[in-house]
Amino acid sequence: MRTLKFLFVITILILFSCGTNNSSTSNSTDDFKIDYEKFTLDNGLEVILHEDHSDPIVAVATLMHVGSNREKPGKTGFAHFFEHMSFNDSENVPVGANRKMIPEWGGSRNGGTSNDYTVYYEVVPKDAFEKIMWIDSDRFGYMINTVTEAALEREKQVVKNEKRQRVDNAPYGYTDEIIRKNLYPEGHPYSWTVIGALPDLQAATIDDVKEFYKQFYGAKNASLVIAGDIDVEETKKLVEQWFGEIPSGPDVEELNIDPVVLDNTKSLYFEDNFAKLPELRMVYPTVKNYHKDSYALNILGEMLSGSKKSPLYNVIVEEQKLAPRVGTYQNSSELAGEFVFRVRANAGTDLDEVKAAIEEGIERFETDGVNTDDLKRIKAELETNLYQGVSTVLNKAFQLVQDNEFKGDPGFITERAKLTNAVTAEDIMRVYKQYIKDKNYVMTSVVPKGQLDLAVADSKQATVWIEEVKQDVANEEVSQGEEAVYEKTPSKYDRSEPPFGELPVFKSPEIWKGELDNGMALYGIENNEVPLVQFDITIPGGQLLDPKGKEGVANLFSDLMMQGTKTKTAADLEEAIGLLGARINMYSSSEDLHITGSCLTKNLNETIKLVKEIILEPRWDQKEFDRLKQALETSLKGSEANPNAIASNVYDQLIYGHDSRFGINGAGTLESTKDIFIDDLKAYYKNLSPKEATFHIAGAINQSQTVEALKPLKEWKGERITIPNVDVQPKNTGGTLYFVDVPDAKQSVLYIGKLALSAKDEEANNLDFANEILGGGSSGRLFQTLRIGKGYTYGAYSGITEREAVSPFTIRTSVRANATLKSLEIIKDMVNDYKNSFTDTEVELTKNKILKGNTRAYESLGAQLGILRRISKYNKSNNFLDQDQDELINMTLADYKAIIDKYITEEDMVYLVVGDKATQFEQVKQLGKPVVQLDIYGNKL
């Protein structure tokens, strides 16, 4: 569960495109649309059904028209808190089943809360469809009688941990609160954050929960979308059975709020304990969602900063070198909108200079006007985004449910596309003058602690409420508690758990292979659901080929290669890619270098020509190199304040050692990158060879069409490259607890693990299977105990990194500071007991969860690309997924115990705690392990 501004994957910036002959779009070339059927139950629940038989899965999304905008001062954060409460118990579903059973059926589930709504969603294999009807309808209409004091108190702790993790322990975490308090008048529904204030949450009572439910959780205050492999007539009957008896609820009064008008500009500063870089935001009040001007404002945001030719990028990044990037964008919600300027500047940069640069960039835009090529590029990119946004059944469900509830039209995607496509240069200049030019705004200067001189002059101090975490945890201990005693709500239907339907059979996709004359292997999957392709060129080596002492070369190299070609500047290249509606990217990983891309199938030929130009005609622009190196320094400096980044970097050092390439951040360190020069990148370029490289592609294209599109790459030549063999040896850190101090941290980040095996190891699958019960998602024991049972964390998981080198098995979580020791004790005991507590029941659960999960795991083009990568990198057979399933089915209890005994052994594990030393250092010593203190770079103190 999470708070969110916009949950939906589909961008509001979409544009009509030619139709395709698939189940989700019309055949007309005039409009793009999602086919659906809508009906309304007698209780007022609006239901939208969409058929998509491409995969044997079903997505369900229930949107409640209640977000934080329905709360009252003094009771903030309640919509989000109630979302958490809804996932606990209900009358006809076993205790804890909502969180535990769905993953065990092979499904996924979650929810989200925004200013305006709360949404609950699931994706399950087809055979669990009626089970989802049962569990989802019971959560919706039959949960309120099951709420207990224990459940209330436990969920309070979970939400507190979410806030600590996302707000209190995060750089710039309080900025949203500052902006809302000052942009909106006191009492305005958007004047507080979605997650709310912890004192308000702590004061919540069962009566508050029941009142909220009765007021907002009626059937006529919701929309339900079911999308996927369904039969419409049969589904209608099931919806009537499971959802038809839910009470209608009272009428919820529509909110009519006058647009926000600021009488003056407000400038505020805040010293951030976790920030290492100064950040400036300027926020203007604009228009709400679906307003006719929102479409032009969206494009205005892209115009101002979304490309290397944009005025703000040129002034702030290129000319004045104040920051690595700048963002401008429109946020539209149900009641109001905001246009945001956001710059996270280089270390030590005076934000007065940033403010002046923004003003200069705006003036330049006003003088030059709208660039028609830019407008053409943006619309081409939006054409591709349209299809990407409806490429999964869950994404389509989100789009349908949002537009139905807030516009009354599930198919508004068609009209929105037309409205966006109709935006003209005159519209963009008009909204700029109407909402931005000479208008008042709220400005925040968030600066590192002790660097107030960087804040904009004459700013006033912002006030936020900051929690004091006390070591006394007696009042924060929670438990499952007793089940509620209540009389079940009468029903004319049997509301007990329905049986599974017919078992869907997962089949590995058909894979084709080939090879170009230059030695590059080809792997492909044809998928014609949408007219898109995604591709990836994997070149072995990656960060393993970094020169010793200059770790970070591969990372910088991949960035610089995208900054133009011999005939194109960085801005020209970006524009050429954008005009195709394509995306091309290059990045390095620990063992490989990747060139990735996506585009409409019709544009693949031209996109590949640009890929060829990028590979064979690098520009080697010194100015771009200098900019990228400065941006990297800024990024590395910023990560020094992030507890999760600190934990990840230090953990890798403890596992692999300071001298191993795997023990160093993939982007390098401030020390290793300071002496990297452009000649180092030119030397690295020699490693870019098609020998041993592999081209992977998934989408609406066959083998012969792909080979034809790849003709330009035949000019790419090169010799086979020798990849260094990294000898990975345990560093004898097991059995020791290491502590890194982050003063005043509200949570402790825990990493616990040991070196295990390579993805090429014959036991790799077995370890994955054996981990599923321990830390494989929300049904795992770690999550169920530390979050559901104790309320110590927002999430806890375990698993192994997939790479060719030997990789660690790792347990990860962030727990509230004053529960650090107790969490460590629970994890230690759980791992020690794991082998003995693993029974035939766990064997069957593992099989069921993974086998059924495979039906939805490979729906997207990205997931199918992942299949191809694993086949080529780890020498797997085309049907390895089927073989893996057979291996899983044949694993015995003895096999599981042997794997656990070999790889999940507590006494061999290194423990890392990143948290507040003042309150936790002495506490963790009670775990009984040697304790060593490290600095944030992993050096012993």
Automatic annotation (TrEMBL):
A biological-process GO annotation: proteolysis
UniProtKB keywords: Hydrolase, Protease, Signal
Highest taxon above the source species: Bacteria
Alphabetical list of InterPro entries matching this protein: Metalloenz_LuxS/M16, MPP/UQCRC_Complex, Pept_M16_N, Peptidase_M16_C, Peptidase_M16C_assoc
Protease as UniProt keyword: yes
Occurrences of domain Peptidase M16C associated (ranges): 406-676
Sample GO molecular function, one term: metal ion binding
Sequence segments annotated as region (Disordered): 478-500
Feature: compositional bias, Basic and acidic residues: 485-497
Signal peptide start and end residues: 1-22
Similarity comment text for this entry: Belongs to the peptidase M16 family.
Family annotation (PANTHER family): METALLOPROTEASE, MITOCHONDRIAL-PROCESSING PEPTIDASE SUBUNIT ALPHA
Record-given protein name: Zinc protease
Organism, scientific name: Olleya aquimaris
Lineage of source species: Bacteria, Pseudomonadati, Bacteroidota, Flavobacteriia, Flavobacteriales
